[in-house]
């Protein structure tokens, strides 16, 4: 199967999972439970997982599916991430808290990993009826339901010295990132956005950067990372290194995502020091 055909199939599968989430939400019975890590899980998470696990397993025979809602132990999931030459990395409902709040800012994340790196990424935004997709070395695109074709995504380069950059902060996981950013860039403006849609907003030039001080799971970032990087952006840890997926952990450290490499490096430097002095 060609990469183009594979991409089209994955886009369709992610969109179907998104429709299942919306159906649960419209039905009004969410079935909220609390997982061992104190995070919520709903019937929508589970419905999307069933579709993704079934369809992706059929799409590429023998390629395992590592999903947040698989029910596997952390040790079992880590074995896949560390050892499988090729696997699907999936978050059936990224932004469950956004789903529960009714903000609509949740997404379906699907990444195909090869040798520990994302080579295909799809982020479906069910409420907005948009799908962001990327293929390693081939670019990133945005398609919208009811609109023929897909538009190419390109970041907006502002540079580290830009006046008034737009930073996105997490709607549910902010850890004083805005205070550190504002100290360095007094003219910066902020928008709260949920789930992996933050990285897609940077990729589509709606904002300049997002800073995440707390940890994230591998399935939160792989697909949107590829979308952003194929659009010309970058994600860097605060030590300046790129994110990696074979570190012996299912968690990522803090990082900055930006459309401009110079801006990303400047933000990473300031957060690595714990506070920002004005440029």
Shape: globular
Question: What order do the helices and strands follow?
Answer: HEEHEHEHEEEEEEHEHEEHEEEH
Percentage of β-strand residues: 25-35%
In helices, the fraction of residues equals 25-40%
Chain-averaged pLDDT: 90
By secondary-structure content and strand pairing, the structural class works out as alpha+beta
The largest sheet is:
7 strands, mixed
Query: What is the rounded distance between the termini?
Result: 50 Å
Enumerate the strands of the largest sheet in spatial order, edge to edge or round the barrel.
3-4-5-6-7-8-9
Task: Identify low-pLDDT runs.
Answer: 275-279
Provide the gyration radius in Å: 18 Å
Would you write up a description of this structure?
The chain is α+β, with helices and mostly antiparallel strands. The chain is 35% helix and 26% strand. It has 8 helices and 16 strands. The protein has helices spanning 3-27, 43-59, 74-83, 96-101, 177-184, 197-203, 218-230, 261-272, and strands spanning 33-34, 40-41, 65-67, 86-94, 107-114, 117-125, 130-135, 139-144, 151-152, 166-170, 189-193, 209-212, 216-217, 234-237, 251-252, 255-258. It is globular and about 50 Å long. 46% of the residues are buried. Residues 275-279 have low confidence and may be disordered.
Keyword list:
8 helices, seven-stranded mixed β-sheet, 16 strands, 279 residues, five-stranded mixed β-sheet, alpha+beta, disordered C terminus
Summary of the model, kept short:
The protein has helices at residues 3-27, 43-59, 74-83, 96-101, 177-184, 197-203, 218-230, 261-272, and strands at residues 33-34, 40-41, 65-67, 86-94, 107-114, 117-125, 130-135, 139-144, 151-152, 166-170, 189-193, 209-212, 216-217, 234-237, 251-252, 255-258. The protein has 279 residues and is α+β, with helices and mostly antiparallel strands.
